[in-house]
Each structure stands twice: as structure tokens, then as C-alpha cells.
């Protein structure tokens, strides 16, 4: 049995959880703890909204790899399914820019849409939920610091802008948009008394089918 195959066996449980974390096969998550009441802003509309991402088809394997399966990374017959990227966003949550590549959209009511923009790879766990209602929207960001505290964190939206390609959607429509959010990340925890507040940015575009 090859070392590469053994690596695949050992990683399989983790990768299965990662697949669920990407929003495939599980309900949308909620932010941890009690979060502040967030601001509401008016949605902008631009029927000519454009971006190269809207015309592209980007995919990755479900553990985040873009490598060619023919290169021998995966055991014969064990090539995992690919995930289509539905967002091309950037987050600065860990002090450096990184990708946020997935977006899901659900029609909750005639005039209410929920967006869930997220990235769950082994290093970054960013999540942004956006609620759109009657031409207004609100957003809630949260993330997971694997080496830091799990309690006492709050994320407050300080600035937000959302542009959509049209005002009305039906289930099955492709919803395209551009988003730009600034969040204040704060911690109140006795073990981290000196941790200063920090600002996080998340911005980019998304294109996904409305469920």
C-alpha cells in the first residue's frame, strides 16, 4: 500500500467534514454567541453590473486543491467531486488577504433573500450572512480562529455596500452582485485582556442560483 494512499485514508474523515462545512449537505450555520444588532443599508441596483467572474467557470476539489487529478495526487478511482466557485471575494480576517469562494442564496419570502458567503478550507473559516428585504439589507460576519478564543468574540458591521443586478428574483434565477463590508472584530475574554480590536474587510463578487 503506497504512502500516498495511506495519506488519503487518514485525511478522508477530515475532508468529509470539510465538504459539509462548505454548505453542501448541511444547513446554514449561525454565528456563535450573542452578536450585536447590525445596521441596515439600502441596496444599490445596476442592470449593467459586470465582472470577469460572471463569465467564468471556476472549480476546485472539495478539499480546496486546484491540482490536476492526473498528476497522481489522488489514488486511482478516488478523484473527488469538484465544487463550482460561486463567489470571488477577498477577506482580511487573519491579517492577510485570502479567498472566499462560495455563495448560496435562498428565497425566504416574496420580498426576502438570504445570502451565505463563506470559505471553509483548512486555514480559513469565514462566514457572511446577508439578509435582503424590501430594498434594504443587513449583514453578519463571523469567523473561527483555530488557535485563539472560541467565546467572547463579537463582529459589528461598520460599513457595507451591496449592489445587485436587478430588483426582483424568482427561484431558479441567477443572482449576481458585488459586496463590500468592513467589520469590527472585538474580544472580551479574561484570558486575552490585551487583545486589541481589529478591522476586517470582505469584498468581491458572487454569482449563484437562487434556491
Task: Write down the overall mean pLDDT.
Answer: 82
Q: What proportion of the residues form beta strands (DSSP E)?
A: 35-45%
* Tally of DSSP helical segments: 1
User: How would you describe the shape?
Assistant: globular
Question: How much helix, percentage-wise, in residues?
Answer: under 10%
Instruction: Count up the domains.
Output: 1
How far from one another are the termini? 44 Å
Rg for CA atoms: 19 Å
Q: State the order of secondary-structure elements, H for helix, E for strand.
A: HEEEEEEEEEEEEE
**Biggest β-sheet: strands ordered side by side in the sheet:** 2-11-12-13-5-6
Q: How many strand elements?
A: 13
How would a crystallographer describe the biggest sheet?
Answer: 6 strands, mixed
Helix/strand structural class: mainly beta
Low-confidence runs of at least 5 consecutive residues? 1-27
Question: What can you tell me about this protein's structure?
Answer:
This protein has 211 residues and is mainly beta. The chain has one domain (31-55, 86-209). The protein contains one helix and 13 strands; from the N terminus they run αβββββββββββββ. The strands form three sheets. Strands 2-11-12-13-5-6 form a six-stranded mixed sheet, with no helix packed on it. Strands 1-10-9-8-7 form a five-stranded antiparallel sheet, with no helix packed on it. It is globular, with a radius of gyration of 19 Å. The relative contact order is 0.20.
Amino acid at each position: 500500500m503506497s504512502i500516498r494512499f495511506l495519506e488519503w485514508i487518514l485525511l478522508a474523515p477530515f475532508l468529509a467534514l470539510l465538504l459539509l462545512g462548505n454548505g453542501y449537505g448541511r444547513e446554514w450555520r449561525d454565528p456563535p454567541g450573542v452578536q450585536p444588532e447590525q445596521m441596515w443599508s439600502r441596496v444599490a441596483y445596476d442592470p449593467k453590473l459586470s465582472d470577469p467572474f460572471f463569465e467564468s467557470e471556476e472549480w476546485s476539489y472539495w478539499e480546496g486543491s486546484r491540482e490536476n487529478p492526473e498528476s497522481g495526487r489522488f489514488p486511482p478511482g478516488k478523484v473527488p467531486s469538484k465544487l463550482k466557485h460561486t463567489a470571488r471575494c477577498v477577506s482580511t480576517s487573519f491579517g492577510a488577504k485570502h479567498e472566499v469562494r462560495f455563495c448560496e442564496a435562498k428565497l425566504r419570502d416574496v420580498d426576502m433573500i438570504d445570502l451565505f458567503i463563506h470559505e471553509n478550507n483548512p486555514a480559513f473559516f469565514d462566514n457572511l450572512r446577508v439578509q435582503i428585504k424590501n430594498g434594504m439589507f443587513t449583514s453578519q460576519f463571523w469567523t473561527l480562529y483555530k488557535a485563539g478564543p472560541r467565546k467572547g468574540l463579537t463582529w459589528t458591521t461598520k460599513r457595507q455596500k451591496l449592489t445587485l443586478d436587478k430588483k426582483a428574483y424568482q427561484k431558479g434565477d441567477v443572482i449576481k452582485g458585488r459586496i463590500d463590508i468592513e467589520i469590527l472584530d472585538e474580544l472580551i475574554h479574561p484570558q486575552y485582556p490585551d487583545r486589541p480590536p481589529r478591522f476586517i474587510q470582505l469584498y468581491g463578487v458572487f454569482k449563484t442560483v437562487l434556491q
